[in-house]
Design brief:
single chain, alpha+beta, Structural Genomics Hypothetical 15.5 Kd Protein In mrcA-pckA Intergenic Region, Chain A, Alpha-Beta Plaits, 18% helix, elongated, binds uracil
């Protein structure tokens, strides 16, 4: 694992959920932090993450270089690391989960809600986003007009949408209690793809939410704008 040099208080707040930089400084002052067995009272002290052993109140703090975050994106946020005008999804990440190099693995439109995976693991994100990986994404869609039966075969065929783009075969599932709602499964992510697919069918998407990526479902208890840290083994379900 590549080593990273950082202040000891930053390391502690990064690695321990619910521990702020201020808390980490206080732990140092109280003599409750050891680096390689020696008490470190000065929280400015630099450590080499992944190499030095950091202990807090007698517990060794294992280094997690990579974080994987499930975000329930609200409307109004853009999926990029910076944007001159609109707030970005990174602004929703709590400080204890924030890492250098964090970015959204895949994009949702500004007015789309739902599951966005944020990570600083470029390799995993790259694998997940490769077109040949065909990671299926599930969306909940609300339309202006009722869903028609013939949409099923149109989606299955692989639709040609405006601009001449041809979609891979996709699936649609009706929602029995709402004739204007459905679930759509696509395994690619062309620009405004679902909106363009329904536009081609002379309908219009009025609400869109991503609810699943690969085999990983968005946690139904995650409120809009909230983040949940995932384990690497959870994220592997995506691939
Ligand atoms: N399709 C869209 O049209 N928009 C999204 O945000 C995702 C899929």
């Amino acid at each position: 694992m590549k080593s990273e040099i950082m202040r000891v208080d930053k390391y502690i707040s990064n690695q321990l959920n619910g521990v702020s930089r201020k808390d980490a400084k206080a732990l140092c002052r109280k003599g409750e932090v050891l680096v390689n067995g020696n008490v470190v009272k000065n929280s400015d002290e630099k450590i080499t993450a992944g190499k030095d052993t950091v202990t807090v109140q007698g517990e060794e703090i294992a280094y997690k270089k990579y974080v994987y975050i499930m975000l329930n994106k609200p409307q109004g946020y853009v999926c990029s690391t910076h944007d001159g005008k609109s707030p970005t999804v990174l602004e929703l990440v709590p400080p204890e989960l924030f890492r250098e190099g964090l970015f959204p693995a895949g994009r949702l439109d500004k007015d789309t809600e739902g599951f966005v995976l944020l990570t600083n693991d470029g390799e995993l994100a790259h694998k997940m986003l490769l077109p040949k990986s065909h990671v299926e994404k599930k969306y909940y869609v609300e339309l202006e007009k009722p869903v028609e039966d013939y949409y099923i075969s149109e989606f299955e065929k692989g639709m040609e949408i405006d601009g001449g783009d041809v979609c891979l075969p996709a699936r649609i599932e009706f929602v029995p209690e709402n004739e204007k709602a459905c679930y759509v499964y696509i395994s690619e992510g062309m620009y405004h793809q679902i909106k363009r697919m329904f536009h081609k069918l002379l309908n219009k998407v009025v609400f869109l939410k991503r609810v699943k990526i690969g085999n990983l479902e968005m946690n139904p208890d995650l409120a809009l704008g909230e983040c949940l840290e995932l384990l690497h083994k959870d994220v592997e379900k995506i691939l």
